[in-house]
Amino acid sequence: MLPEKRFTRRRGIYLLPNLFTTGALFSGFYAITSAMGGRYETAVVAIFVAMILDGLDGRVARLTNTQSEFGAQYDSLSDMVSFGAAPALVMYLWAFSSLGKVGLFAAFVHMAGGALRLARFNTQLATADKNYFQGLPSPAAAAILAGFIWICLEYDYDIELFKYFALVLTVSTGLLMVSNFRYSSFKSIDLKGRVPFIVAIAVMLAIAFVMAQPQVMLFALFLGYAISGPAITLIMRKRKLQERKS
Fold it and tell me: Where are the domains of the chain?
C-alpha cells in the first residue's frame, strides 16, 4: 500500500491588505520623523495619508475576503503609531515643548487615550453595535489635531496665541476617545447600491469644497464629527427616557 499523504495547512499572511496597513504605519512614522526635523506641514499631511491607507486596508480585506486575526492586530498597532503617537508627538514638538510638564501631560493624554480606545475596541469587536463606535475613533481624533496644526501653518498663525487652545484640544481628543459617547460608524451606507443622480453631484461638490480649502474643511468636518458624539448620545438617552415614561 502507498503511504498516505499528509496535507499540512500553509501558514502565512495575506499580502494585499497588509501592504496598505504597512503604508499607513510608515506614514505615521514619517510624520514623527518629519516633525523632528521641523517639517510640520509634511508631518500633518503624512497623518492624513495614513488615514486614507487605514481606511483602504479593511475595505480591501473585505472585498478580497482576506480578513484575518493577524491583519486586525497589525492594523491596531499601526493605528497606535499613526493616530496615537504621531499626532501627540507632532503637537508636542510644534506647540508644547515650551510648556514643560504641562505640554508633556497633554500629549500623553492623547496618546494614552488612543491606546485605551484601540484596546477597548479590540475586546468588544464581537459584541459591539456595528452602527456606532464607542468613543471617538482614533483617526478622527488625529485628524482634528493635524487639521488644527495645518490651518495655523497655512495662515501663519503665531502658535504663542493658540498654544493653550491646542492644549485643551489635545486633552479633549484623548478623553473623547475613551468616553462612552456613541459615534456613527457609517457602516450602514450601501456603497454598492444605486443612488439618485443628485447624490453624485452632491458628492462631487463636497470633494471640490474639501480640495479648495483642505486645511479648514478637514478640521471642520472632523471637529463636527467629534461634537456629534455627545449630541447623538444625549438624543438616544432622551428617547429611552421618553419610551420608559410612555
Answer: 15-187+197-245
CB 43 within 8 A of CB 31: yes
Give 10-residue mean pLDDT values along the chain (246 residues).
48 76 96 96 96 87 80 91 96 93 96 94 78 91 96 92 94 96 79 73 82 88 94 87 78
**Beta strands, E only, 50-207:** 132-134, 182-184
CATH of domain 15-187+197-245: 1.20.120.1760
Strand segments (E) across 123-169: 132-134
pTM of the full structure: 0.88
Q: Rounded distance, CA 77 to CA 200, Å?
A: 35
User: Within a 13 Å sphere around the CA of 39, how many CA atoms are in the beta-carbon half?
Assistant: 11
8 Å CB contact between 232 and 182: yes
CA–CA separation, 75 and 101 (whole Å): 31
> Residue 125 half-sphere exposure, CB side, CA atoms within 13 Å?
8
